[in-house]
Design a protein that fits this description.
This protein is an all-alpha fold. It has 13 helices and 3 strands, in the order E-H-E-H-H-H-H-H-E-H-H-H-H-H-H-H.
Length: about 300
């Protein structure tokens, strides 16, 4: 059988300009997607039982408190009764665990995306909407479109390239639109005000409270944060594996620093960031190491043919 049309093994000779059609469909190794897919799906039970364990409590909340998000109203999604919440919870976890194995990637991947989207509607339809899940949700949406991908897959795929590009753009927009929101609602006073001071006073850890005694430090950090968020589109220029690793370390380091300071962690967003890493290098490193040498009986090497 011939290879699927989406597959490509010929490397590009010229860099693609960000957000052009060629950039969106630049082939990406399927092994990268396979490893990230496993991580993304195995995070689902962690999120359901640990990160957003509070969502299950909505099973016992009076249904009149349910004010569905726009998507819930458009699709006429069911009101979260006790039965609905438990069915969505366990169906989501089971589908994600099986999908992490790589089996039926389109069918199970689509099921995971739809069930997780419903889980988020149940979570965010009671007055609290988080902004740290959009990149992860986009990741769950695009993974089923890529199809079969294995950890040791040597092929590259335009479908994989589009999926990786969609996640990267969404990760970038999470930061850029955060800066836009700061300007929309707070203006430049956000950077010159006491935003971080208030956050540290309310929930600062021992690692951060000392910054309250340094007058210039927190305003400078606010300016630095705005600069980083407004410059986030530059991450679309990243191409080399080394630059990808550096970008991921920088982004994750930023979120670890925030968590260490005020106890806030955007964990689903951090999972989406992991899609940037060149996971296929794990296979390359293993191939370079190679299997242990096999002893050859004396004299065999001298025999012709």
């Amino acid at each position: 059988m011939s290879a699927a049309p989406q597959l490509a093994v010929r490397p590009e000779t010229e860099p693609a300009v960000p957000l052009t059609p060629r950039w969106w469909f630049r082939p990406v190794p399927l092994a990268r997607i396979a490893v990230f897919r496993t991580i993304a799906y195995l995070f689902v039970p962690v999120d359901v039982f640990l990160t957003t364990a509070w969502v299950k409590a909505h099973a016992d909340v009076p249904t009149e408190y349910y004010q569905p998000l726009l998507i819930g109203r458009i699709l006429h999604l069911p009101t979260p009764t006790h039965t609905v919440v438990l069915v969505v919870q366990w169906a989501l976890v089971l589908a994600a665990v099986v999908a992490a194995s790589g089996r039926a990637p389109r069918l199970l991947g689509t099921a995971v995306f739809l069930l997780y989207a419903e889980w988020m509607v149940i979570a965010m339809s009671y007055g609290k909407v988080d902004h740290d899940r959009i990149a992860y949700l986009v990741a769950l949406a695009v993974l089923p479109t890529i199809g079969v991908a294995r950890w040791r897959d040597r092929r590259s795929s335009q479908a994989a390239g589009f999926g990786a590009a969609a996640i990267l753009v969404t990760v970038m927009l999470t930061y850029f639109l955060a800066a836009w929101a700061k300007m929309r609602f707070g203006g430049w006073d956000w950077a010159t005000g006491s935003t971080l001071t208030r956050a540290i006073v309310r929930r600062g850890t021992d690692l951060a409270t000392w910054t309250l005694d340094v007058a210039w430090l927190l305003p400078a950090a606010q300016w630095a944060m705005l600069a980083f968020e407004f410059l986030s589109p530059l991450m679309l220029l990243v191409r080399s594996d080394r630059a990808r690793i550096g970008l991921v370390l920088f982004l994750l380091g930023f979120h670890v620093m925030v968590y260490a300071g005020v106890g806030i962690i955007f964990l689903p967003h951090c999972i989406a960031i992991l899609s940037i890493l060149p996971w296929e290098r794990l296979r390359r490193a293993r191939a370079v190491a190679g299997p242990p040498p096999v002893a050859v009986p004396a004299g065999d090497g001298d025999r012709p043919g």
